[in-house]
Amino acid sequence: MLRRLAAILAAAASPPEVVGRLGGEELLIVLPNTDEATAFDRCETIRRAIAAYDFAPITHHIPVTVSIGVATARGAETTSAALLTDADRNLYAAKRSGRNRVMTARR
After folding, report:
1. Annotated catalytic sites, by residue?
2. Strands 102-103 and 68-69
3. Cβ distance 55 to 1 under 8 Å?
4. Do 68 and 101 touch, CB atoms closer than 8 A?
5. What predicted TM-score, i.e. pTM, was given to this entire model?
6. How far are the Cα atoms of 29, 72, 106 from residue 24, in angstroms, in the given order?
7. pLDDT (tens digit per residue) in 33-78
């Protein structure tokens, strides 16, 4: 199933964007030079694509959804560790808010 999710993310990305696995069930997509509103829209498109994908042969009809945390750099001093912390915080906010959603610092 993670391979299918990664394939959906990879199809949504184009160079210089990068898709990777952080570990466990967490995947990452890096969207360089993308503002928060655009990142939110891109992630919302990905979330809908995953929700619409037919995972039934893999999950035996258990629905698959994703919660996505979005973080954006606020200047050249933003570190990758700070971005991951922000994205993780927004991810858990999405889960607490009912799952199957995209959350940013403002949304």
Report:
1. 25
2. parallel
3. yes
4. yes
5. 0.89
6. 15, 23, 27
7. 999 999 999 999 999 999 999 999 999 999 999 999 999 997 778 8
